[in-house]
Amino acid sequence: MANPDPLEDPLMPGNAALRHVLTLMLTPLLMCVGMGFAYLGAFAAPEPHHLPVAIVGTGPEAKVFAQTVKDKAGDALDVRTLDDRSAAIDQLETRDIDGAYVLGGKAPELIVASAGSDTTVSAVQKIFTPVAAQEGAPLTVTDVVPTVDDDPTGQGLFFLLVAVSIGSYASVAVIGGAGGVLRMRTRALLVVGASGVVSLIGAAFAGPVFHLVHQHLWGLWGMTWLYSAGILAIGVGLHTFLKKWTTLGVMVLFVMLNFTSSGGIFRPELQNGFFGGLHAFWNGAGFVEGARSLVYFGSHDLARNVWTLVAWLAVGALALAAAGLSERRRALAGKPLPVETPEEAEEEMEEAVAV
After folding, report:
1. What is the phi/psi pair of residue 346, to 5°?
2. d(CA 139, CA 21)
3. In what order do the strands lie in the sheet with 99-102?
4. CB 42 within 8 A of CB 266
5. What predicted TM-score, i.e. pTM, was given to this entire model?
6. What is the pLDDT of residue 341?
7. Is the pLDDT of residue 14 over 70?
């Protein structure tokens, strides 16, 4: 009689243990592939596509200059002409353009709004610096909407998005997994409560801790709550159907596609069509652009971004309702609910928190 392997789990024979390990390995490998495609696809080769800029000047000279810039840039730039400097500033403050090159002064001037995107400003400067060099004078850059001194690159709001997102989707594993035995109504209340706590933590980071925003902190807190509640509601609703695959599902929705399309690092004018298209309606973009609008751009276009967050929360409410209906039907049919074991719930929480 062969001696038993002292390393083998007596409750799980060797072949079963190996199959279990290989099955668990599938999730991190899929995460690796997904993160690679998402982050490298979105950030590896940023190039301007129809970047809106203006040439400021009057008369035929300005129109010829604008057409020359357009011909050289091709599809990289969307060039328009404006009669005066104040009109350019107005369009920068309403985010209709990303830069304005002023003709006719003592030296070439480029007007930008760095609060909209530091990387976009860098791209605009890279385009117009050689143009100014041809005029034999250094380029003067004027920033009409700068960021606060505590967030010089303006990317603090993106990293706030990351922190709030992680707190939200990690809470999905707790409420959906360990809380799977609770009634759906109770889980929905936990969604509201957990998102409220996550949003307060986010507001603390944005305000008194790191001073990313110096005004409208309560408005930012409200958007943070909407954003977090949408993630939690969708995740907890999906958990009824996806179970252990929920972590991967929410990672795809709220990390791989979300962070990359948010505009926090590169705005859509510097990304390919796929991620640029997602920026128009994804929840992370609604949060980042809404926060920029509230804090720096006089709430211009804020309503559209808030409605984006409301729409995602509405989808979450539908997901919770569908999950509750499914569980109720199973109960009426006398079928036991597929509740996770404590070990499975703990495993799922570890996967979510470790990401």
Report:
1. -65, -40
2. 60
3. 77-82, 51-56, 99-102, 109-112, 140-143
4. yes
5. 0.88
6. 53
7. no
